[in-house]
Automatic annotation (TrEMBL):
<keyword id="KW-0489">Methyltransferase</keyword>
<feature type="domain" description="Methyltransferase">
    <location>
        <begin position="93"/>
        <end position="186"/>
    </location>
</feature>
<dbReference type="InterPro" id="IPR041698">
    <property type="entry name" value="Methyltransf_25"/>
</dbReference>
<dbReference type="GO" id="GO:0032259">
    <property type="term" value="P:methylation"/>
</dbReference>
<keyword id="KW-0808">Transferase</keyword>
<dbReference type="Pfam" id="PF13649">
    <property type="entry name" value="Methyltransf_25"/>
</dbReference>
<dbReference type="InterPro" id="IPR050447">
    <property type="entry name" value="Erg6_SMT_methyltransf"/>
</dbReference>
<dbReference type="GO" id="GO:0008168">
    <property type="term" value="F:methyltransferase activity"/>
</dbReference>
<dbReference type="InterPro" id="IPR049645">
    <property type="entry name" value="GPPMT_Stmyces"/>
</dbReference>
<dbReference type="InterPro" id="IPR029063">
    <property type="entry name" value="SAM-dependent_MTases_sf"/>
</dbReference>
<protein>
    <submittedName>
        <fullName>Geranyl diphosphate 2-C-methyltransferase</fullName>
        <ecNumber>2.1.1.255</ecNumber>
    </submittedName>
</protein>
C-alpha cells in the first residue's frame, strides 16, 4: 500500500522562507554569478586583491564584483576540500543548494553525480537550467524538496554538505536525515555562521542578521550536540572567522552592498558570531 508523499512546505515558517527565496533577485547574488555562470548563495574566504580598488573609477565596481565572486568560489573550494576522497562513482548531496553553484563545482572536480535540494522552486528551476546550459544535467540535478525529509535513498551518498543553510532548520532533524542518507564512513561538511554561546544571544548585530535573512542562527554548541545525537563524529573543526572578514570589508565598498555588511563585521569583530567549518564522519 503506497502513501502520498509528504508536502515539501510543512510549516508557516517554511512557507515564508520559500517565499523569500522565490522572490529574491538580489544583485549581490546574480551579478556575482554572471561573472562565470556559477551562482552561489554564500560568502567568501581569503584576502582580496587591493588593486581592485585602484585604477579607473568607471570600472571599479566591476573589478570589485569579480573579486567578490572569486572569494565566494574560493569558499566553495574550501568546503569541497574537506569532503575526503570522492570517486566518480560516488554521489553527493547539496542540502539547501540555492542556485546550485557548489554542486556544479563538485561535479567538475570529482566527476561524480551531485544532487541539490531546495524549498525554493524558483531556485531549483534556475539551477537545473544552469546545469543544462553546461551540459552536465545528466549528473547534476536539483530537486524541489525539504532537506529535513528529501525522499532520496538511504545510504546512497558519500558526501553531504550544507553551505550556509543550517540556520533555517532544526539541527537534530537535519542531522538525522543526513545520517540516514549518508553511507557508513561518508562525510558531512558544513560552513555556517553560528553565535558565540556566551555572548551571541545578547548581540544586536546577530539579531539584525537573523532579521535580514528570516533565519534563526544557532549557537556553536548546538551543532556538536545534534551531531553526537545522530552518529556524526567531527574530525575537523576550522574557525574561518578571520578569513571571511576581508570579503565583508570589500563588499561594504561595493554598490552591491545590501546593508547587512555592518552587522556581519560588527558581530565577527566583537566575537559574538563565528564563521565555522565542521567536517564529520558517519559512523
Amino acid at each position: 500500500m503506497s502513501t502520498a508523499p509528504a508536502p515539501v512546505l510543512r510549516t508557516a515558517y517554511q512557507k515564508a522562507v520559500a517565499e523569500y527565496w522565490n522572490n529574491e533577485k538580489d544583485p549581490v547574488n546574480l551579478q556575482l554569478g554572471d561573472v562565470d555562470g556559477l551562482y552561489h548563495h554564500h560568502y567568501g574566504l581569503g584576502d582580496y586583491d587591493p588593486s581592485v580598488l585602484e585604477g579607473p573609477e568607471a570600472t571599479r565596481d566591476a573589478r570589485i564584483t569579480e573579486e567578490l565572486h572569486r572569494l565566494e568560489s574560493a569558499q566553495a573550494d574550501v568546503l569541497l576540500d574537506h569532503l575526503g576522497p570522492i570517486a566518480p562513482e560516488h554521489r553527493l548531496l547539496d542540502a539547501g543548494c540555492g542556485r546550485g553553484g557548489t554542486s556544479i563545482m563538485a561535479n567538475a572536480r570529482f566527476g561524480c553525480r551531485a544532487d541539490g535540494v531546495s524549498i525554493s522552486r524558483s531556485q531549483v528551476d534556475f539551477a537545473n537550467e544552469q546545469a543544462r546550459k553546461r551540459g552536465v544535467d545528466d549528473k547534476v540535478r536539483y530537486h524541489f524538496a525539504n532537506m529535513l525529509d528529501t525522499g532520496l535513498p538511504t545510504g546512497a551518498f558519500q558526501g553531504i554538505w550544507n553551505n550556509e543553510s543550517t540556520m533555517y532548520v532544526d539541527l537534530f532533524e537535519l542531522f538525522a536525515e543526513h545520517a540516514r542518507q549518508l553511507a557508513f564512513g561518508g562525510r558531512y561538511v558544513t560552513i555556517t555562521g553560528c553565535s558565540n554561546d556566551v555572548t551571541g544571544l545578547r548581540s544586536k548585530a546577530v539579531s539584525r542578521i537573523d532579521e535580514h535573512y528570516t533565519c534563526n542562527i544557532h549557537p556553536r554548541s548546538a551543532y556538536f550536540k545534534a551531531m553526537a545525537a545522530n552518529g556524526l563524529v567531527p574530525i575537523n573543526v576550522v574557525d574561518l572567522t578571520a578569513a571571511t572578514i576581508p570579503y565583508w570589508e570589500l563588499r561594504a565598498k561595493s554598490s552591491l552592498a545590501t546593508g547587512v555588511e555592518e552587522p556581519f563585521l560588527t558581530a565577527y569583530k566583537e566575537g559574538s558570531f563565528h564563521y565555522l567549518l565542521i567536517a564529520a564522519d558517519r559512523i
